[in-house]
User: What shape does this take?
Amino acid sequence: MRTIDCRGLSCPQPLLMFTEAHKKDSETPMDVLVDNPASMENVSRAARKKGWKVEAVSCEDMGSGVVRLELRK
Amino acid sequence: MRNNFLATTPGVIAVGMVIGVLAIFLQKMGNPGNMGICVACFERDLAGGLGLHRAAIVQYLRPEIVGLVLGSLAAAAATGEFRPRGGSSPMIRFVLGVIAAMGALVFLGCPWRAILRLAGGDANAIFGIAGLGTGIFIGTLFFRKGYSLGASQRQSAATGLVFPLIMVGVLVLYLMYPQIQGQPQSGPIFYSVSGPGSMHAPMLVSLGVAFVIGIGAQKSRFCTVGALRDLFLFGSTHLFLGLCAMFVAALVANLATGGFHFGFEGQPVAHTVSLWNFMGMVTAGLAFALAGGCPGRQLFMAGEGDGDAGIFAVGMLVGAALAHNLGTASSATGIGAHGIAATLTGLVVCLAIGFAHIRRTA
Assistant: This one.
């Protein structure tokens, strides 16, 4: 299990961080924290394309607009 | 999570098509040739209308700029996406905005207008778009090396609202001091009586069309710079297809209405100095890429409450004014006396900003 914290970052950085994590290890589940809709959509779209199942969970307790994208195989 | 059709690939293609068609519609309604909607040109005109520069032919409080921001604000507020944020290297973003506007005004157009110029048959735009692609490509090299302007933080609602409120202020000034036929000034506000600044669609049409575009662009995250950036970085065609759709729709609309005239010479508000059409957009493209989006996208993000994007837009207003005050902006007769110096200085500053913000530690 890994957590990639992209809070406060906007595209393309969250997508770059996800891509890098995926390159390192494309099997171990990961959670990606994002806090803007564009990054959420971008990471979800890219992850699905790479064969991940994506579940978006709202995490307002971690900051305004924070969403945890749970990426599983 | 809320279902957002416009954020899907068919959605962004639809938005691109709508923007392309509406841009040509605005030209038919009075906006300058191949300039149905150009963020850099219209920010330049807006700066002129406020008297920040005194180039008499490019002064008009373009309602399009106001509409793009307020449309985005309305869409964001209606869907719970208005999020006041900021604090990600604001000073750097201001400087990038200044450079982006100055570079774009050497070419005579932002990425949006580059597309519209090509769709109108202006072959000079090929050099501009090649330069834009080159500048964005250089930007992606920085991103690959770990370039980041840092995370933004949540800000007060007032911080998020200040740029949209400045736009409301512009609208109020327009309504308080409307254009008087043939007069260069109305109260404190400047209005071109000739040149591109004098050519405009009726105010409510400009405002309304831009408002609609603002809504669509906010929901779809349409971005002309992100389009090429994501293509280079990830091989992702999502935003790129939106950009292509804008071009194809504008081209078809031009062909259908007799607005397509292929060639280099005699194109509206354009010059034929190819090297600097290219280089101006290399500088602008790199500045846009380092700031995270095209000038349109910056306005839409400013409408969503992103104060950093708002500062970039203010930087563009200042840069556009500087470009005319310092003689770095081009005109239909060629590049400005100091256009080359501005382009190269801007490029060097962008490269320095890029190298200074490579943060990767791994």
About this structure: Chain A touches chain B at residues 7-13, 15-16, 19, 35-38, 40-41, 45-46, 56, 58, 63-65, 67 (CB under 8 Å).
